[in-house]
Write the structure tokens for this entry.
Amino acid sequence: MNNFTFYSPTYFVFGKDQECETGKYVKRFGGSKVLIHYGGGSVVRSGLLDRVKASLDKEGISYVELGGVQPNPRSGLVYEGIDLCRKEGVDFILAVGGGSTIDSSKAIAAGTVYDGDFWDYYMGKPVVDALPIGTVLTIAAAGSEGSPDSVITKEEGMFKRGASGEGFRPKFSILNPALTQTLPAFQTAAGVADIMAHLFERYFTTTKDVEVTDRVIEGLLLTMINEAPKVIANPNDYEARANIMWAGMMAHNNCCGVGRAQDWASHDIEHELSAVYDCAHGAGLAVVFPAWMTYNMHHDVMRFAQLAVRVWGCQMDFANPEKTAKAGIEALRRFFKSIGMPGNFEELGAKEEDIEMMAHTACYGNGRTGHIGGFASLSEEDVANIYRLML
Amino acid sequence: MNNFTFYSPTYFVFGKDQECETGKYVKRFGGSKVLIHYGGGSVVRSGLLDRVKASLDKEGISYVELGGVQPNPRSGLVYEGIDLCRKEGVDFILAVGGGSTIDSSKAIAAGTVYDGDFWDYYMGKPVVDALPIGTVLTIAAAGSEGSPDSVITKEEGMFKRGASGEGFRPKFSILNPALTQTLPAFQTAAGVADIMAHLFERYFTTTKDVEVTDRVIEGLLLTMINEAPKVIANPNDYEARANIMWAGMMAHNNCCGVGRAQDWASHDIEHELSAVYDCAHGAGLAVVFPAWMTYNMHHDVMRFAQLAVRVWGCQMDFANPEKTAKAGIEALRRFFKSIGMPGNFEELGAKEEDIEMMAHTACYGNGRTGHIGGFASLSEEDVANIYRLML
């Protein structure tokens, strides 16, 4: 196991009606003038925003609002948020929404207290200082509620890039599974795919002897496989929603990724898809992962076989472990299909003619130097080949 | 799943040689005058204490020392530590040792800033204020390095009781698996039993639909079952030590116990054993748990069968699930024996004639009102019957 540090100081508040306590937690973590940041109409229509505002009013906390976050959140709104926070003297950012809203909030939180262009962080500068952030989560997916990460798309060039640092860990996150019950099935399933992808990115490692993190990842994957079909069948299954929501946090706060090399090429490969076609990130990942696995299986067949046996319940073929490894990948493909995820470029709305451009941007865009991935180091040609497996 | 909050703000520093950075972390978390608290000679003989002091010297941090913590740490030394901290103006407590040292440090940290008797906390007062605590861990066992808990034995009456609260979460914990390589096999194995017990206490629940925490607990148990025999066979197996050490933290920081009723009767039953016979806590738990399981299996046979199948690899007997449940308990018994743990009263050094006294103290001592346990509510008679199963 590699040396590591792990620091997840977020205060998680989980369960029914907890959003009505938002004001209490903003106060506890020092907020007195809040930016409420959110996306489209659903948080307004559902009454969630009103409940959050009422809880702030109750504590005598003043606030300004900025809505309009889109999926794959854009730099333009971040700049707008930074200006607003500076003008209004905001000292706390409250994200009410999903991963896109939280990621946009993180960018605003860092940008507001930084003299330069916030995009510097997305070009690799570690995030240390940022305004304190709280979240009220509305979809189990990105894990941004407990992570030190944020992904933003720069509108000039449509570059989608991530930033990271301790300043991005939310002070508190409110997770009420009931808030996810109104999500359309497609978004729920895309969230499931995103959570599973965060686990796969960590599972595929070159680090030996990482039993504890292997086993926790496998346990979280088994949870997703058991619980996801329940919420697709019955969107109001609170218990299944709750299991998925906590798994989503644990999948990405890195408690199961510590001490091991991780991969993350699939995220880079997917980011090009959602940057170019504006598809749901999780839907993109559902298409990318079986292709990435098929292409890279030969680097460590036994690890893929282990996943197939322990998580998908495949029988181990001791004479031919590669068959077991492949059976696991096919099980994943069937699973994503069963919850309504796309399975190829066509279903995703992607186009073959863009493959070379996307492979190039994935490997060279925004300061990258030609190879991506920690488990298998992929060249531009490899990435293009992986895209072709999705046709 | 029940509503819950989860807050684990400890900064974990994991890996080889990390104790040499202790001073840096004391500084980061605001310490300027430190009490170094430790147990017996091993941290001195091994040179660990010198390395820790050198790292404090390097940062210009002054310190006083208090050694002499015993297993099952006593109230007497806590009072001594409180006096010393007040006299010397200590503002940070640094525990160098295992669970006993950390628990004693926590008691001193709370007692120093409290006007009353620190034992009030061990009678049920929640711990809010305490001096900041850092730890350098030398045994994977108690999980105190990441938990809000502490257990102390009051010398008058030999009452062993726990206290809990956010003030008890360490600011940082340094986990170097190499420091555990010099432990005697018995202590290593007792640590393993303690970690597994923390998982069982959470696993046996009356809360329905807790798949995510079930699966994580099972993953951590599988880790222990795979890794423990390696370190018993080869004490210098750093990788196995590392897996056990991280599992030990995750087993008890409550990330896998949230949202579910927990049991904890077995800990209460064991606390009487280690209070009366001063046996190793983990060794006591290794004797208690199979007996507790046998006695309480009928409350939820399918949960015991689930554990047997998923963790011990037993074949499910669909015609007679109780047989599967029992096979799992027998597998646990064999496992504890295989790593050198005692299996009954005699091997533990406990005496049949004390059973009624211990059962009474477990159920009525220190303000308890007659029943213990969250999965199965146990009377004094039940507890005595469980002790008898250990004969």
